[in-house]
Amino acid sequence: FYLFTCEDCFMEADLVMNLLLWIETIPTQLPLPCILKPKALWSGKQIFSLLLPDINYSESYFYEQIVVTIQRGELLQSTLKNTLFFRYSRGLTRHITQECGAPRTVLFINQLHKMMTYWMLQSFTNDRP
Length: 129
Known about the structure:
6 helices, 44% helix, alpha+beta, two-stranded antiparallel sheet
């Protein structure tokens, strides 16, 4: 999750479209690219936000120097780490379960897993000469 949501992770339209094929709830409208010229590029945060339900979530982990802000289902601030998802009392998956129920949490985790697996396969196999 860290590499996908870091500040320098950008994706072209063809990769974004292929990523969206791996999720069950395909959005009807794609967000505007965060970079328009010289070519359209989407950030990992924008694509990750497509998986989130319409929730508000804010958490600070100062000892790990992480601040997470999600408003209306859009990841606004953070570089995600695995520990964010699975903290027992304040984790993102627990928050989604409390706000939206267990079926929506399962859908989120499944879609995230499929998308991350495809992205890692594409990212690391295309970097070879």
